[in-house]
Amino acid sequence: xxxxxxxxxxxxxxxxxxxxxxxxxxxxxxxxxxxxxxxxxxxxxxxxxxxxxxxxxxxxxxxxxxxxxxxxxxxxxxxxxxxxxxxxxxxxxxxxxxxxxxxxxxxxxxxxxxxxxxxxxxxxxxxxxxxxxxxxxxxxxxxxxxxxxxxxxxxxxxxxxxxxxxxxxxxxxxxxxxxxxxxxxxxxxxxxxxxxxxxxxxxxxxxxxxxxxxxxxxxxxxxxxxxxxxxxxxxxxxxxxxxxxxxxxxxxxxxxxxxxxxxxxxxxxxxxxxxxxxxxxxxxxxxxxxxxxxxxxxxxxxxxxxxxxxxxxxxxxxxxxxxxxxxxxxxxxxxxxxxxxxxxxxxxxxxxxxxxx
Length: 357
What we know:
The protein has helices at about 75-100, 105-110, 130-145, 150-160, 160-170, 220-230, 235-255, 255-275, 285-300, 330-340; strands at about 5-15, 20-25, 30, 35-50, 55, 115-120, 185-190, 195, 205-210, 310-315, 320-325, 345-350. It is of the alpha+beta class. The strands form 3 sheets. Strands 1, 4, 5, 6, 7 and 8 form a 6-stranded mixed beta sheet that branches. A 4-stranded antiparallel beta sheet has the order 10-11-9-12. The protein has a two-stranded antiparallel ribbon with strand order 2-3.
């Protein structure tokens, strides 16, 4: 095997959602979103240079990925075409970014194709933002392959905010939410740019993900973005999301977990109402999803006695439920949720940085 270029990037979980686009071609959101970057829930993408100028999919795990932890996603032709288009996007645009930051090309690799291997530590296309982590990792791997100075690339990635955000903006064009996976722990995305929220008073949080289903969702996120604008509930949606974003930003700054919890619940319910009321209604929720949400609801709204702040409950466009709790009490919450739902797999993750070239 010739030298392969590998990158790892984390998923992220939004509390103010990206749903609906102001510009579908550039993945510009209709409203700003606020998210928490994860770490262990991540994707790894590996690009092995080929003599032929195209992408190939030999299968198998990227090198160094443990089969007990990583899963190779089943990518259909449409998904492979999105990957290929993004590699070409990076190939065409990375030169301007390198020039701006004093980094040189590897002109040999600019002409080559690649064998692509990718893997996730969680089920793909099930509402745990696999598109975000996979496109962030793909952006990094492709950029690294086209760079002629590996050591400088690493220094820029971890030392230059301008370089990282340039890659983030490029990644956004492949998958909108991927731009939020380049910084940690709290990120705000508005228009073309995602940026770190500085100096919050939030404690370290752990994301406990109740995996109700690991099956690929029947309605993709891209299809949902297009469908929701036909919902009568879309009227006022941008204003509602923006108001929540302003309140959430203040709550993060002050460390008001109770306010964060309430805002996050209202926001994901608002988003799912769009799905349920569009021209051809659909739902991601399964019977077990309702069971988990009903069990959590008293804790969120203060009807069940707990010694800590209420959990922050949210969902992406999928059936699985995210429960964010202070890391100091995460083991207790994990035990309680596992006891209540012994047949539901619980994934646990936090916000340690895991963006690696």
